[in-house]
Amino acid sequence: MKEFLCTDKDFKDIATLVYNACGIVLGDHKREMVYSRLARRVREHKLKNFSQYLEYLHNNKEAEFDAFINAITTNLTSFFREPHHFEFLKNTIVPQLLSTNKVTKRVRVWSAGCSTGEEPYSLAITLADLFPSSWDVKILATDLDSNVLAKAQAGIYTAANVNGLENNVLKKWFLKSKDGQTYKVKPQLNKHIFFKRLNLLQEWPMKGNFDVILCRNVVIYFDKETKDTLFKRYANALNRGGYLFLGHSESMGKDHAEFKNLGKTMYQKQHNARTV
């Protein structure tokens, strides 16, 4: 028997709130996950059931809603996850940018759904040695979850988190604690990354376009209508010939003429793409 009652109506109300806030679709198969994650909030506020929690959330939306969304969103990541993306970035995209952007010497990359920071730091490590110091290379890292964003900004990871990194990478880009249990990202890597909380379904405050956007393991939670809208917005946010990377279990579909499918969840904005 569960600690707290969560009725069908409670789950439906939760799913509606989450969808309206950030476009994530919570089907019935997510009920156990929703229960386990929100039970902590019910317990923390000393409430008796999920109905009381929803009432509390309604009456204290400004104070509680961020914690509610943070509890629901999934944040599983690792350094250089899906390594073929980073190989393509290194071997194909960077040589192109060194040529196409040689006048402006400006490169912009967006990690949309950066979670605890492993992805943007992996990007920064990849790019750091490939562009001359005179180039203006910046990475925008955004996430809906304020808790994981704070961890990303701190740049402190356990030994288990960095276990897959080569020793020379660890020595060059991380400061090891005296007890060897944690590793902190060095300032010279951190300075290229700008962290910002962002709901992808709301207005984007960024000015200027990106050369590369990574939105990996994010759109899997959205319905088709939300995905299609998001892909169009990404096309608008990319320079012509820019690249979009999705997660390993995600795809765009054939009805997005703005992009050319390169395989392995990599897409390139068509040079003649018409976006609005």
Task: Please describe what this structure looks like.
The protein is of the alpha/beta class. It is 41% helix and 20% strand. The protein is built from 10 helices and 10 strands. The chain has helices spanning 8-22, 31-44, 50-59, 61-72, 83-100, 118-128, 146-154, 167-173, 187-190, 224-237, and strands at residues 106-112, 136-143, 156-158, 174-176, 182-185, 193-197, 210-215, 238-246, 259-263, 266-269. The strands form 2 sheets. It has a 7-stranded mixed β-sheet. A 3-stranded antiparallel β-sheet has the order 3-5-4. Helix 2 runs antiparallel to helix 4, helix 3 crosses helix 4 and helix 5 (83-100) packs across helix 6. The longest helix is centred in the N-terminal third of the chain and has 18 residues, at 83-100. The protein is globular and about 60 Å long. The N and C termini lie far apart (53 Å). The model has no long low-confidence stretch (mean pLDDT 92). This is Protein-glutamate O-methyltransferase CheR.
Topology, element by element:
Blueprint: H1 8-22, H2 31-44, H3 50-59, H4 61-72, H5 83-100, E1 106-112, H6 118-128, E2 136-143, H7 146-154, E3 156-158, H8 167-173, E4 174-176, E5 182-185, H9 187-190, E6 193-197, E7 210-215, H10 224-237, E8 238-246, E9 259-263, E10 266-269
Parallel strand pairs: 1-2, 1-7, 2-6, 7-8
Antiparallel strand pairs: 3-5, 4-5, 8-10, 9-10
